[in-house]
Design brief:
mainly beta, 1 helix, three-stranded antiparallel sheet, Immunoglobulin-like, 155 residues, single chain
């Protein structure tokens, strides 16, 4: 059995009334607007934040990020003990010439996402693969040191 954890905002529901829920939604939207450029320093208003899932599969963690249309050469992944940083940048240009007109389009995509890791994730053994727009990063859990026990003498 695996446990999925979606990284993002969680809004506690409790026994809120409608007006309290609406105020909380407005606050979240304001936070999103205020933090938009910080969340995507490389993407700006045209960038996007990839959705990220962290799965606990018992002996290992799996981090999945949705990167549709991105090639592995365009992705950079940095792993530390505390987090994984995923960056991607892509630029494409197409030109079409027909009688009477010329069409030229430019596309630019960039994003940056930093995901905190659980304390027991062994980032030194992380592996990554990108297939069909899904980036999958696997890492085992750190082996626990056996608990040392000792006898205490009563004074």
């Amino acid at each position: 059995m695996s446990i999925r954890k979606r990284v993002g905002y969680l809004v506690p529901m409790g026994y809120w009334g409608t007006s309290a829920m609406l105020k909380e939604m407005e606050r979240l939207i304001d936070d999103l607007k205020a933090g938009f450029s910080e969340a995507m320093p490389f993407g700006g208003p045209t960038g996007r934040i990839p959705m990220v899932d962290i799965l606990d599969e018992g002996e290992r963690y799996i981090v999945e990020a949705e990167l549709p249309g991105v090639k592995k050469e365009e992705v950079s992944i940095d792993v530390s003990e505390e987090s994984i940083t995923i960056e991607a940048e892509r630029e494409a240009e197409t030109e079409e010439k027909r009688e009477g007109y010329v069409r030229r389009e430019r596309e630019s995509l960039s994003f940056y996402r930093q995901v905190p890791l659980p304390e027991d994730a062994d980032s030194t053994k992380a592996t990554a693969r990108l297939e069909n727009g899904l980036l999958t990063i696997e890492m085992p859990k750190k082996e626990r040191a056996p608990e040392a026990t000792r006898k205490l003498e009563i004074e």
